[in-house]
Amino acid sequence: MIGRLIAMACALTIPVAGLVAQQTPSIRVEPAQLQGSRPVEKQTETAVIRDYLQSWKSLETALDQNQAALLDSNFVGTARDKLANTIEEQANLGIHTHYRDRAHDLQIVFYSPEGLSIQLIDTVEYEEQVLDRDKVLATKTVRKRYLAVLTPSEVRWRVRIFQAEAE
Amino acid sequence: MALAQSGNMSLPQSVTAGSAFSIPTTGSGDGVLYIVGPGQALRRDVHVGQAAAFPAGVLYNAGHYLAILTVGTSTDTGEFDVTPTALPEALGFLAKPSRLPVGLHNGISGAVYVFDAYRNLITTPMPVSFELSNSSATAQARTVTTRNGLAWAEMDSATKEGAAKFVARVAGVSSTRVIDEVPGDPCGIKISAQPDGGKLQVETAPVRDCGGNSIPDGTIVTFTETFNDTQSTVDVPLKQGVARVDMPAYKGAKISVALGVVAGNEIRWEGGR
Questions:
Q1: How confident is the model at residue A3 (pLDDT cuts 50, 70, 90)?
Q2: B18-22: average pLDDT
Q3: Is B38 in contact with A142 (Cβ distance < 8 A)?
């Protein structure tokens, strides 16, 4: 498997309100293996991966601060609704969750012929820490395969479907 | 359901979205069980030593979850997955374009995402049938098996104009998009002229595309008359498939016609006035 290590420093340093300095996750981008008829131009691939990684930062901040509005610039549709619902549940329970993505192994697997959706698979390693107010309830390192579908909006790609797959 | 021991909890490896399940616990005392993931967050007070029961419809978003059991100062942590149900309930059907000319190979494309009742993407492969039908043309059909929860297909636009139904269907669930198939470029354009006093009545034959479809009324036809190094141009919309214009009847004038990039015949008027 020939992978390319892409320095995504510029994408990962985009400021997010309230985000504290974090370690930059390692990013590995596999060559696209598309089932669609439309090739992904390099510029599109870079933009999609940049926006997807930014969505993780948005997710992390939103679930840590229990503020659904922080999802708005990176998530839309079902993905946004589900995450916002989780935030509401967390707030009702008095808990919050600190996620920190450590490594992403990404591959674009579908780009629809009309350019309306792009699907990628991300084998991601992240730390999940659940807190009851300031008390840490548990910390776990998780490695999962996520499926994400992004659709274009005015200025960026937004995550519309975001789902971890079972082993 | 296979269970994995995690401290004082026995966790399922996976739970089907929306189904009832329970988490047996061992030990004694009162505790709190949290189920937390990006998809949902739940909390249950539990009597340790008994099973914590979760009725159907409580945990329904597919994904990965941590289970945390706290009893006094001790904590047990485990993890499990929630998987989509196997039954499709809704389709996300993206089809493009909504309007296109007839006779285009692979001109129409559709991508279908298959969801269960809880809007989880069903990633188990399943066949999706695509059908494109137009009242005046033979229906096209394809069956494509989903991969990573999606299937896609490309279709040709029909040779006859009209509204086409583009239907995607999975296990009794369907979604329809309407595609407007319109005439393509004209196959040719031909004019004739008749004298009318000091003028020429110039008229096109009915303008059609190569499939015999009439070019829509309102489409602009351009008539050009060239005489003695001067050129005059008149734009005329098609009415009932035909464009007509009166032009000066100069002896030796050349009159030509065009519609978009398609040029028609040229007439040289020798009748004179």
A1: very low
A2: 96
A3: no
What are the residues whose beta carbons fall under 8 Å from the beta carbon of A106, sequence distance 6 or more?
A27, A28, A29, A30, A49, A52, A120, A121, A122
Which A residues in the span 51-110 are in contact with B, Cβ-Cβ below 8 Å?
59, 63, 78, 81-83, 85-86, 89-90, 93, 95, 97, 99, 109-110
pLDDT digits (tens, 9 = 90+) for B204-227: 999 999 888 899 899 999 999 999
Structure letter (DSSP) for residue B169: E
Q: What structural domains and CATH numbers belong to chain B?
A: 3-83 (2.60.40.1930), 90-182 (2.60.40.10), 191-268 (2.60.40.10)
Grouping H, G, I as helix, E, B as strand and the rest as coil, residue B118 is coil
Question: Do B231 and B155 touch, CB atoms closer than 8 A?
Answer: no
**Structural domain range at position A86:** 4-11+25-164
Question: CB distance B75–A137 less than 8 Å?
Answer: yes
The predicted pLDDT at position B211 comes to 84
- Is the CB of residue A71 less than 8 Å from the CB of residue A84? yes
The per-residue pLDDT for range A43-94, each reduced to its tens digit, is 999 999 999 999 999 999 999 999 999 999 999 999 999 999 999 999 999 9
pLDDT for the residue numbered B225: 94
ipTM for this prediction: 0.86
Looking at the complex, report in whole angstroms how far the Cα of residue B167 sits from the nearest Cα belonging to chain A.
17
Count of the separate structural domains present in chain A? 1
Chain B contacts in chain A segment 100-159 (CB below 8 A): 109-110, 112-114, 116-117, 119, 121, 128, 130, 137-138, 140, 142, 144, 147, 149
